[in-house]
Amino acid sequence: MKFGVVVFPGSNCDHDAYYALKHNLGYDVNFLWHKDASIPTDIDCIVLPGGFSYGDYLRSGAIARFSPIMREIIEFAKKGRLVIGICNGFQILTEAKLLPGALMKNYSLKFVCRDVFLKTVSSNTPFTSLIERGRVLRIPIAHFEGNYFADEDTIKELKNNEQIVFQYCDKNGNVTEEANPNGSIENIAGIVNKQRNVLGMMPHPERYCDPVLGGTDGQVIFQSIENYLLTITKEVLCLG
Amino acid sequence: MMGKFLAKVVVTLKPSILDVQGRTVENSLKTIGFSQINNIRVGKYITFTVDANTIEEARKIADNATDTLLFNPNIETYNLEVVEMETGDRR
Lengths: 240, 91
Hints:
The structure holds 2 protein chains of 2 kinds. By secondary structure, chain A is α/β, with parallel strands linked by helices. Chain A has helices spanning 14-24, 68-78, 88-95, 152-160, 219-239; strands spanning 2-7, 28-33, 45-48, 82-86, 102-104, 112-120, 136-143, 147-149, 164-169, 188-192, 198-201. Chain A has one domain (2-239): Class I glutamine amidotransferase (GATase) domain (Rossmann fold, 3-Layer(aba) Sandwich), CATH 3.40.50. Chain A contains 5 helices and 11 strands, in the order E-H-E-E-H-E-H-E-E-E-E-H-E-E-E-H. In chain A, strand 1 (2-7), helix 1 (14-24) and strand 2 form a beta-alpha-beta unit. The radius of gyration of chain A is 16 Å and the shape is globular. Chain B has a domain at 3-16 and 44-84: 2-Layer Sandwich (Mth169, Chain: A), CATH 3.30.1280. The mean pLDDT of chain B is 94. Chain A binds chain B through residues 58-59, 62-63, 66, 94-95, 100-102, 104-109, 149-151, 183, and chain B through 13, 17-18, 20-21, 24, 44, 69-70, 72, 74-75.
């Protein structure tokens, strides 16, 4: 199990992701540089970390989307390989059109940095394979532009295809307006693409992988990825 | 002969999208006494020059650049104006 964490100029959660994956969870991890024109063949899952790639100039994620590594990641994703974008990574994935919609300025116009509760809406993704539907996770957010928007038809499609993975909720799992930290439509905190191999989420699971940091609910997302990959490997071996 | 053209792009949020920045600026203006002012929208103004043979060609290039990077069709709309620059205008 090997993760590749992409480093853009302005990424600032790349080392957090590396630390969580390597030291808290024990996986192999490599940094991938934004100018790299290929992805090592042993990488199982790409992580687009949080931060302010290219200074958030023009729009968050808009410029990162055209970096050399992103061309490779778009191909990687199209082959069905796993990609997870966290915070700025989510913004980059929407700009790259790997995920629908866009992330706008928070409704409050404030940078919000605090714990939120997330309701797991779908277990039917590689990223939530170990999380039962309805389970509430406590994970921090830290963003100014996390207000998810998509037009009515897109939202309908997201719902019909069970692409909404996480919704902001209260500690009991109720999806309410008060629990929505940024104005996201339908309280959306994370979605997958139609093929279910690309996840974008505003909250930071990598920040809650170490008990010293106040929580460990983030671990299960990465463990789900490992679980999913082990399952499909077994299936392939059985079929073979 | 190759000419130089000036492109001016105004990018704004679609009318259907709540502009929270505009709302805040508007509230501020009202607070300081501009009660007559309403419907503020905040956008981006981007200018660049284009080398092209004709204004049509320049417009096509500017349009393409705007579509590719300068605006996000999910939430934004834009207005593009292209004008020929006078010789010696090095803006």
